[in-house]
Amino acid sequence: MNWVGLECWNLTREGVLSRLLLLFLHGLGGDPGSWGKFEQLLKADADLKDRLDVAFYNFPTGLWRLIPSWKSLPAQDLAKGLATKIQVQYGAYQKILLVCHSFGGLIGKKYIVDEIKRSDQLRIREVIFFAVPHLGTETANIFGKLSFGHRQLNQLRIGADFIDLLTEDWVTYRCENRVGVTYVVAGQDGVVSRKSASSGQRANVEMIPHKNHRNVVEPEDKNDIAFLLVKREARQLLTDVVDDFAEVRRAIGENNAVLLTSLLINRGRSWIEGTEAGQAIALFSEIEAKFDPDSKQVIWSHYLSAIAQLFRERVPPAAAFDDRYLARAERYNLRLLVLAERLEFARKRSDDATLEIAMQLTREVSANLSPSSPEESYAVGVAFYLIGNLQRFGGMYNNASDSIERSRTFFPCLSG
Known about the structure:
Largest sheet: 6 strands, parallel
Helix content: 40-55%
Distance between the termini: 51 Å
Number of helices: 19
CATH class of the largest domain: Alpha Beta
CATH architecture of the largest domain: 3-Layer(aba) Sandwich
Order of helices and strands: HHEHEHEHEHHHEHEHHHHHHHHHH
Shape: elongated
Radius of gyration: 24 Å
Strand order of the largest sheet: 2-1-3-4-5-6
Number of domains: 3
CATH topology of the largest domain: Rossmann fold
Structural class: alpha/beta
Number of strands: 6
Protein backbone atom coordinates (compact mmCIF):
# COMPACT_ATOMS: atom_id res chain seq x y z
CA MET A 1 0.00 0.00 0.00
CA ASN A 2 1.34 3.44 -0.84
CA TRP A 3 2.46 5.98 1.74
CA VAL A 4 -0.46 8.37 1.34
CA GLY A 5 -2.94 5.56 1.69
CA LEU A 6 -1.51 4.89 5.16
CA GLU A 7 -0.76 8.38 6.34
CA CYS A 8 -3.22 10.91 4.95
CA TRP A 9 -5.99 9.72 7.28
CA ASN A 10 -3.84 10.84 10.21
CA LEU A 11 -3.88 14.43 8.94
CA THR A 12 -6.67 16.84 9.80
CA ARG A 13 -8.70 18.20 6.93
CA GLU A 14 -7.11 21.61 7.54
CA GLY A 15 -3.66 20.04 7.28
CA VAL A 16 -4.47 18.32 3.99
CA LEU A 17 -6.00 21.48 2.55
CA SER A 18 -2.67 23.23 2.78
CA ARG A 19 -0.75 20.38 1.12
CA LEU A 20 -0.22 19.39 -2.48
CA LEU A 21 -0.93 15.83 -3.63
CA LEU A 22 1.27 14.39 -6.37
CA LEU A 23 -0.67 11.55 -7.96
CA PHE A 24 1.28 9.31 -10.36
CA LEU A 25 -0.39 7.31 -13.18
CA HIS A 26 1.77 4.58 -14.73
CA GLY A 27 1.55 3.35 -18.29
CA LEU A 28 0.69 0.14 -20.11
CA GLY A 29 2.20 -2.85 -18.33
CA GLY A 30 3.43 -0.64 -15.50
CA ASP A 31 2.95 -0.37 -11.76
CA PRO A 32 4.01 2.06 -8.99
CA GLY A 33 7.56 0.73 -9.33
CA SER A 34 7.69 2.19 -12.84
CA TRP A 35 8.40 5.61 -11.33
CA GLY A 36 11.85 4.68 -10.04
CA LYS A 37 13.15 7.00 -7.32
CA PHE A 38 10.49 9.71 -7.71
CA GLU A 39 8.87 9.17 -4.31
CA GLN A 40 12.22 8.85 -2.54
CA LEU A 41 13.55 12.04 -4.13
CA LEU A 42 10.40 14.03 -3.41
CA LYS A 43 10.38 13.01 0.25
CA ALA A 44 14.04 13.93 0.59
CA ASP A 45 13.81 17.32 -1.13
CA ALA A 46 14.25 20.16 1.35
CA ASP A 47 11.87 22.47 -0.55
CA LEU A 48 9.04 19.96 -0.87
CA LYS A 49 9.14 17.17 1.71
CA ASP A 50 7.01 18.85 4.38
CA ARG A 51 4.54 20.38 1.95
CA LEU A 52 3.26 17.55 -0.24
CA ASP A 53 2.10 13.94 -0.30
CA VAL A 54 2.79 11.26 -2.90
CA ALA A 55 0.31 8.68 -4.19
CA PHE A 56 0.02 6.18 -7.05
CA TYR A 57 -2.97 5.04 -9.08
CA ASN A 58 -2.40 1.36 -9.83
CA PHE A 59 -4.66 -0.43 -12.31
CA PRO A 60 -4.76 -3.87 -14.02
CA THR A 61 -2.63 -3.79 -17.15
CA GLY A 62 -0.04 -5.72 -19.13
CA LEU A 63 1.95 -5.45 -22.32
CA TRP A 64 0.42 -8.68 -23.62
CA ARG A 65 -2.83 -10.57 -23.26
CA LEU A 66 -2.33 -13.86 -25.05
CA ILE A 67 -5.04 -15.62 -23.03
CA PRO A 68 -7.86 -14.12 -20.94
CA SER A 69 -5.66 -14.11 -17.81
CA TRP A 70 -6.68 -10.59 -16.71
CA LYS A 71 -9.53 -8.30 -17.61
CA SER A 72 -8.42 -5.47 -19.86
CA LEU A 73 -10.47 -2.49 -18.68
CA PRO A 74 -10.65 0.38 -21.19
CA ALA A 75 -9.37 3.85 -20.35
CA GLN A 76 -12.94 5.08 -19.79
CA ASP A 77 -13.42 2.62 -16.91
CA LEU A 78 -9.97 3.34 -15.51
CA ALA A 79 -10.76 7.06 -15.55
CA LYS A 80 -13.91 6.34 -13.53
CA GLY A 81 -11.79 4.34 -11.11
CA LEU A 82 -9.44 7.28 -10.80
CA ALA A 83 -12.40 9.56 -10.06
CA THR A 84 -13.56 7.21 -7.31
CA LYS A 85 -10.08 7.03 -5.79
CA ILE A 86 -9.68 10.80 -5.73
CA GLN A 87 -13.15 11.37 -4.31
CA VAL A 88 -13.01 8.67 -1.64
CA GLN A 89 -9.36 8.48 -0.66
CA TYR A 90 -8.06 11.97 -1.46
CA GLY A 91 -11.22 14.03 -1.16
CA ALA A 92 -9.71 16.54 1.26
CA TYR A 93 -6.98 17.69 -1.13
CA GLN A 94 -7.77 20.88 -3.02
CA LYS A 95 -4.57 20.93 -5.08
CA ILE A 96 -3.48 17.88 -7.06
CA LEU A 97 -0.60 17.57 -9.52
CA LEU A 98 -1.23 14.65 -11.87
CA VAL A 99 1.95 13.04 -13.22
CA CYS A 100 1.27 10.63 -16.08
CA HIS A 101 3.31 8.22 -18.17
CA SER A 102 2.29 6.81 -21.55
CA PHE A 103 -1.19 5.18 -21.43
CA GLY A 104 -1.68 6.69 -17.97
CA GLY A 105 -1.78 10.10 -19.62
CA LEU A 106 -4.85 9.13 -21.65
CA ILE A 107 -6.56 7.97 -18.45
CA GLY A 108 -5.67 11.29 -16.84
CA LYS A 109 -7.00 13.25 -19.82
CA LYS A 110 -10.25 11.31 -19.81
CA TYR A 111 -10.66 11.93 -16.07
CA ILE A 112 -10.11 15.70 -16.53
CA VAL A 113 -12.56 15.90 -19.43
CA ASP A 114 -15.21 13.99 -17.46
CA GLU A 115 -14.72 16.20 -14.38
CA ILE A 116 -15.08 19.38 -16.43
CA LYS A 117 -18.25 18.03 -18.01
CA ARG A 118 -19.71 17.19 -14.59
CA SER A 119 -18.71 20.20 -12.52
CA ASP A 120 -16.95 23.55 -12.35
CA GLN A 121 -14.85 22.25 -9.46
CA LEU A 122 -11.55 20.73 -10.57
CA ARG A 123 -8.89 19.82 -8.05
CA ILE A 124 -6.34 18.84 -10.68
CA ARG A 125 -4.32 22.05 -10.97
CA GLU A 126 -1.57 20.76 -13.23
CA VAL A 127 -0.82 17.68 -15.31
CA ILE A 128 2.56 16.53 -16.63
CA PHE A 129 2.46 14.13 -19.58
CA PHE A 130 5.61 12.01 -19.87
CA ALA A 131 5.82 10.32 -23.30
CA VAL A 132 2.04 10.09 -23.65
CA PRO A 133 0.72 8.97 -27.08
CA HIS A 134 -1.87 11.74 -27.45
CA LEU A 135 -2.20 10.94 -31.16
CA GLY A 136 -1.68 7.20 -30.78
CA THR A 137 1.34 5.04 -31.53
CA GLU A 138 2.25 2.83 -34.49
CA THR A 139 3.56 0.22 -32.06
CA ALA A 140 0.00 -0.40 -30.83
CA ASN A 141 -1.19 -0.80 -34.42
CA ILE A 142 1.31 -3.62 -34.85
CA PHE A 143 1.21 -5.45 -31.51
CA GLY A 144 -2.51 -4.99 -30.93
CA LYS A 145 -3.08 -7.71 -33.50
CA LEU A 146 -0.97 -10.16 -31.47
CA SER A 147 -2.88 -9.78 -28.19
CA PHE A 148 -6.23 -11.33 -27.31
CA GLY A 149 -8.93 -8.76 -26.47
CA HIS A 150 -6.38 -6.19 -25.28
CA ARG A 151 -8.64 -3.10 -25.11
CA GLN A 152 -5.95 -0.84 -23.72
CA LEU A 153 -3.52 -1.64 -26.51
CA ASN A 154 -6.24 -1.17 -29.11
CA GLN A 155 -7.09 2.26 -27.67
CA LEU A 156 -3.49 3.33 -28.24
CA ARG A 157 -3.69 2.73 -31.99
CA ILE A 158 -3.27 5.66 -34.37
CA GLY A 159 -6.77 6.48 -35.60
CA ALA A 160 -8.51 4.71 -32.73
CA ASP A 161 -11.96 6.16 -32.01
CA PHE A 162 -11.04 6.65 -28.35
CA ILE A 163 -8.00 8.78 -29.24
CA ASP A 164 -9.95 10.89 -31.73
CA LEU A 165 -12.93 11.50 -29.42
CA LEU A 166 -10.71 12.29 -26.44
CA THR A 167 -8.70 14.80 -28.48
CA GLU A 168 -11.93 16.42 -29.69
CA ASP A 169 -13.30 16.70 -26.13
CA TRP A 170 -9.99 18.07 -24.82
CA VAL A 171 -10.24 20.94 -27.31
CA THR A 172 -14.00 21.46 -27.12
CA TYR A 173 -14.02 21.78 -23.33
CA ARG A 174 -10.92 24.02 -23.35
CA CYS A 175 -9.19 21.79 -20.84
CA GLU A 176 -5.91 23.66 -21.08
CA ASN A 177 -7.71 26.78 -19.88
CA ARG A 178 -8.63 24.89 -16.73
CA VAL A 179 -5.41 23.05 -15.90
CA GLY A 180 -1.74 23.77 -16.48
CA VAL A 181 -0.21 21.27 -18.92
CA THR A 182 3.38 20.24 -19.55
CA TYR A 183 4.21 17.83 -22.39
CA VAL A 184 7.48 15.88 -22.01
CA VAL A 185 9.12 14.25 -25.03
CA ALA A 186 11.79 11.56 -24.63
CA GLY A 187 14.40 12.05 -27.35
CA GLN A 188 15.23 8.33 -27.61
CA ASP A 189 11.61 7.16 -27.50
CA GLY A 190 11.03 4.38 -30.01
CA VAL A 191 7.41 3.87 -28.99
CA VAL A 192 5.79 7.32 -29.05
CA SER A 193 6.73 9.86 -31.71
CA ARG A 194 7.67 13.42 -30.83
CA LYS A 195 4.52 14.73 -32.54
CA SER A 196 2.29 12.36 -30.59
CA ALA A 197 4.02 13.04 -27.24
CA SER A 198 3.63 16.80 -27.72
CA SER A 199 0.05 16.41 -29.01
CA GLY A 200 1.11 18.56 -31.94
CA GLN A 201 1.50 21.54 -29.58
CA ARG A 202 4.20 24.21 -29.78
CA ALA A 203 3.88 25.59 -26.26
CA ASN A 204 4.66 23.93 -22.93
CA VAL A 205 6.71 21.15 -24.52
CA GLU A 206 9.87 19.92 -22.78
CA MET A 207 12.50 17.63 -24.36
CA ILE A 208 14.75 15.15 -22.54
CA PRO A 209 17.11 14.11 -25.35
CA HIS A 210 18.91 11.15 -23.74
CA LYS A 211 15.90 9.29 -22.26
CA ASN A 212 13.78 6.57 -23.85
CA HIS A 213 10.12 5.68 -23.42
CA ARG A 214 10.68 3.73 -20.21
CA ASN A 215 13.49 5.45 -18.34
CA VAL A 216 12.12 8.95 -18.93
CA VAL A 217 10.17 8.39 -15.69
CA GLU A 218 13.01 6.75 -13.77
CA PRO A 219 15.01 9.68 -12.31
CA GLU A 220 18.52 8.74 -11.25
CA ASP A 221 19.08 11.47 -8.69
CA LYS A 222 17.94 14.96 -7.63
CA ASN A 223 19.58 16.49 -10.72
CA ASP A 224 17.66 14.32 -13.17
CA ILE A 225 15.67 16.50 -15.59
CA ALA A 226 12.47 14.49 -15.10
CA PHE A 227 12.61 15.05 -11.36
CA LEU A 228 13.44 18.74 -11.77
CA LEU A 229 10.45 19.19 -14.09
CA VAL A 230 8.09 17.67 -11.52
CA LYS A 231 9.71 19.70 -8.74
CA ARG A 232 9.31 22.90 -10.75
CA GLU A 233 5.59 22.38 -11.25
CA ALA A 234 5.09 21.32 -7.62
CA ARG A 235 6.82 24.43 -6.33
CA GLN A 236 4.73 26.58 -8.63
CA LEU A 237 1.54 25.04 -7.27
CA LEU A 238 2.71 25.56 -3.71
CA THR A 239 2.73 29.31 -4.25
CA ASP A 240 -0.36 31.35 -3.51
CA VAL A 241 -1.58 31.51 -7.12
CA VAL A 242 -4.43 29.08 -6.50
CA ASP A 243 -5.48 31.08 -3.46
CA ASP A 244 -5.47 34.19 -5.65
CA PHE A 245 -7.85 32.50 -8.07
CA ALA A 246 -10.20 31.57 -5.23
CA GLU A 247 -10.24 35.25 -4.23
CA VAL A 248 -10.92 36.27 -7.82
CA ARG A 249 -13.86 33.88 -8.07
CA ARG A 250 -15.21 35.19 -4.77
CA ALA A 251 -14.88 38.77 -5.98
CA ILE A 252 -16.68 37.90 -9.23
CA GLY A 253 -19.47 36.13 -7.35
CA GLU A 254 -19.92 39.02 -4.91
CA ASN A 255 -19.59 41.65 -7.64
CA ASN A 256 -16.76 43.16 -5.59
CA ALA A 257 -15.12 45.43 -8.16
CA VAL A 258 -12.67 46.97 -5.67
CA LEU A 259 -11.19 43.64 -4.56
CA LEU A 260 -11.18 42.29 -8.11
CA THR A 261 -9.35 45.31 -9.50
CA SER A 262 -6.77 45.17 -6.72
CA LEU A 263 -6.06 41.49 -7.43
CA LEU A 264 -5.72 42.08 -11.14
CA ILE A 265 -3.35 45.02 -10.73
CA ASN A 266 -1.21 43.62 -7.95
CA ARG A 267 -1.15 39.91 -8.77
CA GLY A 268 -2.28 39.47 -12.36
CA ARG A 269 1.12 39.60 -13.99
CA SER A 270 2.41 36.71 -11.85
CA TRP A 271 -0.53 34.53 -12.94
CA ILE A 272 0.18 34.78 -16.64
CA GLU A 273 3.89 34.09 -16.27
CA GLY A 274 3.42 30.73 -14.55
CA THR A 275 1.88 27.37 -15.30
CA GLU A 276 -1.58 28.64 -14.29
CA ALA A 277 -1.82 30.97 -17.31
CA GLY A 278 -4.61 28.93 -18.94
CA GLN A 279 -6.80 29.20 -15.85
CA ALA A 280 -6.03 32.90 -15.61
CA ILE A 281 -7.17 33.46 -19.21
CA ALA A 282 -10.44 31.67 -18.43
CA LEU A 283 -11.00 33.97 -15.42
CA PHE A 284 -10.24 37.05 -17.51
CA SER A 285 -12.93 35.93 -19.96
CA GLU A 286 -15.44 35.59 -17.10
CA ILE A 287 -14.62 39.09 -15.90
CA GLU A 288 -14.97 40.58 -19.38
CA ALA A 289 -18.32 38.84 -19.82
CA LYS A 290 -19.76 39.99 -16.47
CA PHE A 291 -18.58 43.57 -15.95
CA ASP A 292 -18.98 46.83 -17.84
CA PRO A 293 -16.58 46.97 -20.84
CA ASP A 294 -15.41 50.41 -19.70
CA SER A 295 -14.73 49.33 -16.10
CA LYS A 296 -11.22 49.26 -14.71
CA GLN A 297 -11.34 45.54 -14.01
CA VAL A 298 -12.22 44.75 -17.62
CA ILE A 299 -9.49 47.07 -18.92
CA TRP A 300 -6.92 45.19 -16.83
CA SER A 301 -8.40 41.77 -17.67
CA HIS A 302 -8.15 42.51 -21.39
CA TYR A 303 -4.57 43.72 -20.99
CA LEU A 304 -3.46 40.64 -19.04
CA SER A 305 -5.33 38.25 -21.34
CA ALA A 306 -3.63 39.65 -24.45
CA ILE A 307 -0.18 39.36 -22.86
CA ALA A 308 -0.95 35.83 -21.64
CA GLN A 309 -2.00 34.72 -25.12
CA LEU A 310 1.21 36.13 -26.54
CA PHE A 311 3.25 34.20 -23.99
CA ARG A 312 1.38 30.95 -24.68
CA GLU A 313 0.98 31.08 -28.45
CA ARG A 314 3.97 33.26 -29.43
CA VAL A 315 1.64 35.09 -31.81
CA PRO A 316 0.35 38.60 -30.96
CA PRO A 317 -3.47 38.58 -30.84
CA ALA A 318 -4.85 40.70 -33.66
CA ALA A 319 -6.09 44.18 -32.69
CA ALA A 320 -5.51 43.51 -28.98
CA PHE A 321 -4.59 47.15 -28.31
CA ASP A 322 -6.62 48.98 -30.95
CA ASP A 323 -7.85 52.59 -30.78
CA ARG A 324 -11.13 51.60 -29.12
CA TYR A 325 -9.31 49.88 -26.27
CA LEU A 326 -6.85 52.79 -26.04
CA ALA A 327 -9.71 55.26 -25.58
CA ARG A 328 -11.17 53.15 -22.75
CA ALA A 329 -7.78 52.75 -21.06
CA GLU A 330 -7.11 56.51 -21.18
CA ARG A 331 -9.86 57.04 -18.61
CA TYR A 332 -7.57 55.38 -16.07
CA ASN A 333 -4.34 57.08 -17.20
CA LEU A 334 -3.13 53.90 -18.87
CA ARG A 335 -2.44 55.37 -22.29
CA LEU A 336 1.32 54.79 -22.01
CA LEU A 337 0.81 51.16 -21.05
CA VAL A 338 -1.37 50.50 -24.11
CA LEU A 339 1.03 52.30 -26.46
CA ALA A 340 3.95 50.34 -25.02
CA GLU A 341 2.24 46.99 -25.62
CA ARG A 342 1.12 48.15 -29.05
CA LEU A 343 4.80 48.76 -29.81
CA GLU A 344 5.82 45.32 -28.56
CA PHE A 345 3.10 43.54 -30.53
CA ALA A 346 4.01 45.50 -33.67
CA ARG A 347 7.67 44.56 -33.21
CA LYS A 348 6.82 40.88 -32.91
CA ARG A 349 4.70 41.09 -36.07
CA SER A 350 7.51 42.98 -37.90
CA ASP A 351 4.87 45.63 -38.60
CA ASP A 352 5.89 48.60 -40.78
CA ALA A 353 4.35 50.92 -38.19
CA THR A 354 6.75 49.81 -35.42
CA LEU A 355 9.15 52.75 -35.76
CA GLU A 356 6.32 55.28 -35.88
CA ILE A 357 4.77 53.83 -32.70
CA ALA A 358 8.19 53.87 -31.02
CA MET A 359 8.70 57.55 -31.80
CA GLN A 360 5.24 58.42 -30.50
CA LEU A 361 5.77 56.42 -27.32
CA THR A 362 9.20 57.97 -26.71
CA ARG A 363 7.73 61.47 -26.96
CA GLU A 364 4.86 60.69 -24.64
CA VAL A 365 6.86 58.84 -22.00
CA SER A 366 9.38 61.71 -21.88
CA ALA A 367 6.51 64.04 -21.02
CA ASN A 368 5.22 61.78 -18.23
CA LEU A 369 8.16 61.22 -15.91
CA SER A 370 6.25 62.10 -12.75
CA PRO A 371 3.57 59.40 -12.39
CA SER A 372 0.99 60.04 -9.68
CA SER A 373 -0.01 56.46 -8.87
CA PRO A 374 1.56 52.97 -8.78
CA GLU A 375 -0.38 52.05 -11.92
CA GLU A 376 0.96 55.03 -13.83
CA SER A 377 4.46 54.25 -12.57
CA TYR A 378 4.05 50.69 -13.82
CA ALA A 379 2.97 52.03 -17.23
CA VAL A 380 6.03 54.30 -17.49
CA GLY A 381 8.30 51.44 -16.45
CA VAL A 382 6.80 49.09 -19.05
CA ALA A 383 7.14 51.81 -21.71
CA PHE A 384 10.87 52.26 -21.05
CA TYR A 385 11.42 48.51 -20.89
CA LEU A 386 9.70 47.82 -24.22
CA ILE A 387 11.47 50.74 -25.88
CA GLY A 388 14.66 49.08 -24.66
CA ASN A 389 13.48 45.78 -26.15
CA LEU A 390 13.11 47.43 -29.56
CA GLN A 391 16.51 49.09 -29.29
CA ARG A 392 18.14 45.80 -28.36
CA PHE A 393 16.36 44.08 -31.26
CA GLY A 394 17.78 46.78 -33.57
CA GLY A 395 21.33 46.38 -32.27
CA MET A 396 21.35 49.64 -30.25
CA TYR A 397 22.70 47.89 -27.15
CA ASN A 398 23.92 50.94 -25.22
CA ASN A 399 20.60 52.76 -25.72
CA ALA A 400 18.73 49.57 -24.79
CA SER A 401 20.73 49.24 -21.58
CA ASP A 402 19.94 52.85 -20.63
CA SER A 403 16.21 52.43 -21.33
CA ILE A 404 15.95 49.18 -19.37
CA GLU A 405 17.85 50.72 -16.47
CA ARG A 406 15.41 53.65 -16.44
CA SER A 407 12.49 51.22 -16.46
CA ARG A 408 13.66 49.82 -13.13
CA THR A 409 13.20 53.17 -11.41
CA PHE A 410 9.49 53.11 -12.26
CA PHE A 411 8.70 49.48 -11.41
CA PRO A 412 7.23 49.49 -7.91
CA CYS A 413 5.37 46.40 -6.74
CA LEU A 414 1.82 47.52 -7.35
CA SER A 415 0.75 47.04 -3.76
CA GLY A 416 0.91 50.68 -2.78
